[in-house]
Specification:
397 residues; alpha/beta; Aspartate Aminotransferase, domain 1; Aspartate Aminotransferase, domain 2; 2 domains; 13 strands; binds pyridoxal-5'-phosphate
């Protein structure tokens, strides 16, 4: 099947908007709203409880997991969906620690997303027993993988800078030291080709509302390497991870598949919307997607550096070490981003001073990149960001 990038016609992009924040909340795919309406009106409204069987609700977590599996290079049946990414991080961490009972160190990095680190801290507080979380600088992680490390837990693409770890090399180093490997693919699933099975990592987790366009609150996913699944002792032993949920047994008996990483009732509305959203990936060649992503980020860096000398590139210059986003440091970054958003160019801001721009090749093209850079130049050269209205901080930045 031929690949046509971008595929803007598959998305509801508001007129006048250049959307460079699909790495945080993906755009609404066409068809998603109609699907949600069908699920609400026909299935919930019309079929009521019968829909669990008759509308395929009970199978939806697995069906959607199988579709995500193809995007991360994992085998069918190895991806469970549901809950939020923070919960999936917790489950993977707990399972990994139990696989290395004689070790006490969780190794991550100082650039990891706060929630991943908080979940590790919370888990350590719950288990006690002298566990420790180590967070060296990203470049120092490989050297910090010692035989004390039970689990290496890293986010592949840094949410703030876009810096990218080498999945294969770090997984090899973790395994050579006897550690379990967990990859968080929040900023890479749907942004590039991935081969999680080829890496041999035990676990991979991610969310579906960023590059996968599943909408706010869309369910997370967790992959477990098939050969370890039956040894996973789930921290959150919910009834839908049970081997026979409707046997209503008093004791927990885990499903003999990745389903044991499910917890409770799946979010059907969100899963249905996500299933619809994942159709935009049909026929997409992920190598072509990555090539388009690199072309867009390279062009944006070149345009911005030529037009806006006051901004300092905070992402790796080498595209091979960068995800599908570009970040610039600027002292007045928050206000400048607000001024930019007021002009229809939507990126976001991450404390303390990062202006972040995501490039989603399915719906961003070169003309968008050039237009966005020109508007950024206007905001900076006129100092439009000095307007006090742009300094008011929302709850979400
Ligand atoms: C977006 C993101 C999260 C968010 O977790 P939720 O539980 O879905 O809110 C967690 N970790 C990383 C690395 C992220 O990029």
């Amino acid at each position: 099947m031929p690949t046509h990038l971008p595929r803007k016609d598959l998305f509801e992009i508001p007129p006048g908007v250049i959307y460079l924040d699909g790495n945080s909340l993906g755009v609404l795919p066409k068809g998603a709203a109609a699907r949600a309406a069908r699920v609400i009106e026909d299935e919930w409204g019309g079929q009521l409880i019968r829909a669990w069987n008759e509308a395929g609700w009970m199978d939806l977590p697995r069906v959607v997991g199988d579709r995500i599996a193809t995007l991360i290079g994992a085998p069918a049946g190895s991806v469970a969906t549901g809950d939020t990414l923070s919960i999936k991080v917790y489950q993977a961490l707990d399972a990994a620690l139990k696989m290395r009972p004689d070790r006490r160190v969780i190794l991550s990095d100082s650039g990891n997303f706060p929630s991943d680190l908080y979940m590790a801290q919370g888990l350590i507080g719950t288990i006690g027993k002298g566990y420790a979380l180590r967070t060296p600088a990203p470049d120092a992680v490989a050297a910090a993988i010692t035989d004390e490390v039970a689990v290496v837990m890293l986010t592949h693409v840094d949410y703030r800078t876009g810096r990218m770890h080498d999945i294969d090399a770090i997984t090899r180093a973790a395994h050579a030291a006897g550690a379990v490997m967990i990859w968080d693919l929040a900023h890479s699933a749907g942004a590039m080709a991935l081969d999680i099975a080829g890496s041999g990592a035990e676990f991979a987790v991610g969310c579906s509302y960023k590059y996968l366009n599943g909408g706010p609150g869309a369910p997370a996913f967790i992959h477990a390497r098939p050969d370890i699944v039956e040894r996973i002792d789930p921290a959150l032993a919910g009834w839908l991870g049970h081997a026979a949920p409707f046997a209503m047994e008093p004791g927990y008996r885990p499903a003999m598949s990745t389903e044991r990483l499910r917890v409770g009732t799946p979010p059907i509305l969100q899963l249905a919307v996500l299933q619809e959203a994942l159709k935009v990936w049909d026929g997409v060649d992920m190598a072509a997607l990555r090539a388009a992503s690199i072309a867009l980020t390279e062009r944006f860096i070149a345009e911005v550096e030529a037009r806006c000398p006051m901004l300092v590139l905070a992402s790796p210059r080498d595209p091979a070490r960068r995800g599908s986003q570009v970040s610039f440091a600027f002292e007045h970054g928050y206000a400048a981003m607000q001024a930019l958003i007021a002009r229809g160019v939507i990126g976001d801001f991450r404390a303390p001073d990062i202006m972040r721009f995501g490039f989603t090749p399915l719906y961003i093209d070169e003309a968008d990149v050039i237009a966005a850079a020109a508007i950024l130049q206007e905001v900076l050269t006129t100092e439009a960001w000095r307007d006090p209205a742009y300094r008011v901080r929302g709850k979400v930045t």
